[in-house]
Amino acid sequence: MADPNDRILIVGAGIAGAATALALAPLPVLVVAPTGVSADAATTLAQGGIAAALGPDDDPTLHAADTHAAGAGLCEAEAVARVTAEGPAIIARLAALGIRFDTDESGALALGLEAAHGRSRIVHANEDATGRAVLEGLIAKARIAPHISRRADLVAVRLEAEDGRVHGLWCRDHGGRLVHLSGRAVVLATGGIGGLYASTTNPRSAVGSGLAMAARAGAVLRDLEFVQFHPTAIATASDPMPLATEALRGAGAILVDETGARFMADVPGRELAPRDVVARAIHDRIRGGHRVFLDARPALGAHFARHFPSVAQLCRTNGIDPERDAIPVRPAAHYHMGGIKVDGTGRTSLAGLYACGEVASTGLHGANRLASNSLLEALAYAQWIAADIAHRQAHAPVAASAAPADGPPAGIEAVRALMESHVGVVREGDGLRRALRLLAPRMAQDDAALVAGLVTLGALERTESRGGHFRADHPATGAPRHSEITLPAAAARLAAHAEHALREAV
Ligand SMILES: Cc1cc2nc3c(=O)[nH]c(=O)nc-3n(C[C@H](O)[C@H](O)[C@H](O)COP(=O)(O)OP(=O)(O)OC[C@H]3O[C@@H](n4cnc5c(N)ncnc54)[C@H](O)[C@@H]3O)c2cc1C
Q1: What are the DSSP calls for 337-393, one per residue?
Q2: What's the domain count of the chain?
Q3: Catalytic site includes residue 297
Q4: Which of 141, 170, 208, 304 could in theory staple to 451 by disulfide, Cβ–Cβ 3.0 to 4.6 A?
Q5: CA of 378 to the centre of ligand 1 (A)
């Protein structure tokens, strides 16, 4: 039997975990993930597709320029250049794995247009079911790959770290028992944080468990305050909220209120302005007492279901006929630009710990992600992480430390309500301080409260508006700067805020 100290542990089986596991061949890999292709992974829900500069009028430098423009001054030039350059090769590799992307009548890849992209460059599969199609393809390969094994009965709860090096994981099994796993490296691929918000398009389970584990192990986290709110989640009681993909607006669907007024008509870019601009416009309209609808009838009419079968199905399930009715929409937490800080090889600040996919902050997205860049990012970094691990020596085995103690969860619904009210599309100091006062006492015990508290702290301390972060009390944009935090630094800053609040109160 292979030495467990030689294996690589991957937490999560969305696109980031699955692609990294495959790329690591022939090194032995153990994937810890409770689900396969299921709604537990945001990847399964991805509709629009994967951005890649493949059109005859396109070039990776144009894709890079659009990525920078959306990222509002915080994208890292090297990450943007490398990822956008890799796009066409990534699509070719997926096609070689047997993933069938949609083509036009001439047999060329059909390229969709999405907001803030200057060219049509969104590659898609099964029309608007790209994420599921790609993940099914990757997981089918992973199932037959001899180097990959999987523990579906375990959920990771803590990293095991010593002297700045991670060498294992503590997991919980179905019976609540703690199980220790050792490995030469750990790759966190646990996805985003939308589940921390009452209104989200993410799986409810996306509460940032990887961020919490990395924070508790001492890793540097970056730009946590940048959360992207998708403008057009379908306004139903479903949780998570179904998404009306941006590609609908790319195909000509317009935003109107209940009076039929097209309120984006005078905004530069109109319905295809950057997501934060559209989300704020809808938020303001709703705060003004209106209802907002995405009207695809003039653009798509009876062709809706043919081009957007997943959205058509989601609408029908919620009693909406998109060929006859405008679709009610409102913004919802969708994507986390912030995450565990990584370098160009996916390494975090802790030796032996890597992060891939939405949980990572690579520098690609800056303050606002360009649509369809996240699946691309996960696929690019999966290879770079695998290459880096392959070139590193396995370390000497380390004995397992004592099992961690964790407290009872703090009550996720309370966290979701606080984040929704105070750390949403529009933020302001008083609300952020209120949320932080309520979250702070729970952060030591509960991972969801810890991540929510760190996002709130970042939002409070960023006294400017930029990309996905808008402060009503600081609407101007300041000089570009990243925010970085570790858990000890957060504790000191929280104490300073509490002391300040106390002084104000007396
Ligand atoms: C509705 C929707 C539509 C989207 N559309 C697009 C699009 O068209 N194009 C695009 O580029 N991006 C899109 N995105 C964003 C994109 O889908 C995600 O950013 C991406 O799929 C994240 O992949 P991931 O592998 O990092 O995380 P996920 O796919 O969320 O996978 C995370 C995995 O980690 C597991 N996990 C989490 N915590 C633990 C733990 N403690 N122990 C064990 N396992 C754990 C989960 O069960 C899951 O398997 C969309 C997102 C949503 C929600």
Answers
A1: --EEE--TTSB-SSBTEEE-GGGEE-SSSTTSPPTT-HHHHHHHHHHHHHHHHHTSP
A2: 2
A3: no
A4: 208
A5: 10
Q: Which of 59, 38, 10, 31 is nearest to 153 (CA)?
A: 31
Residue 277 lies in a domain: yes
Closest-lying ligand 1 atom to the alpha carbon of residue 191: 27
Which residue, 305, 333, 361, sits at the end of a domain? Answer: 333
Burial code of 211-244, b = ≥16 C-beta within 10 A, e = fewer?
bbbbbbbbbbbbbbbbbbbbbbbbbbeeebbbbb
Least Cα distance to 190 among 292, 81, 336 occurs for 336
pLDDT at residue 409 in the model? 62
- Identify the CATH number of the domain in which residue 486 sits: 1.20.58.100
Domain presence at residue 429: yes
- What residues flank ligand 1, with Cβ below 6 Å? 11-17, 32-35, 40-43, 45-50, 130-131, 155-156, 189-192, 201-202, 206, 209-210, 243, 334-335, 357-359, 372-375, 378
User: Is 153 a domain residue?
Assistant: no
Give the CATH number, domain containing residue 294. Answer: 3.90.700.10
Q: Which atom of ligand 1 is nearest to the CA of 44?
A: 29
Q: What are phi and psi of 118, to 5 degrees?
A: -80, -10
Pair 501, 408 in one domain: yes
User: Which residue type sits at 337?
Assistant: M
* 248 is a domain residue: yes
* Radius of gyration (C-alpha) of the chain in whole angstroms: 22
Q: What is the DSSP code (8-state) at residue 235? A: -
Q: Given the residues 132, 275, 347, 416, select the one marked as catalytic.
A: 275
Write out the H or E segment, with its range, that includes residue 353. Answer: strand 353-355
CB 262 within 8 A of CB 255: yes
Question: Which ligand 1 atom lies nearest to the CA of residue 40?
Answer: 47
The answer to whether residues 328 and 415 belong to one domain is no
Give the residue carrying structure tokens 């630094």. Answer: 489
Task: Let me know how long the chain is.
Answer: 506
pLDDT value of residue 497: 83
Q: Whose CA is nearest to atom 9 of ligand 1?
A: 372
Residue nearest to atom 17 of ligand 1 (CA): 43
Tell me how far the alpha carbon of residue 42 is from its chain's centroid: 8
According to the model, what pLDDT value does residue 393 have?
Answer: 72
Ligand 1 atom 5, closest CA = 46
Question: Which residues make beta-bridge pairs with 328?
Answer: 293
Domain that holds residue 455: 404-505
Q: Which residues of the chain have pLDDT under 50?
A: none
SS3 of 376, please?
helix
- The predicted structure's pLDDT at residue 113: 87
Separation of CA 302 and ligand 1 centre (Å): 32
Q: Label the pairing between strands 155-162 and 178-182.
A: unpaired
Among the candidates 300, 333, 366, a domain finishes at 333
- Residue nearest (by alpha carbon) to ligand 1 atom 20: 43
Ligand 1 atom 45: residue of nearest CA:
12
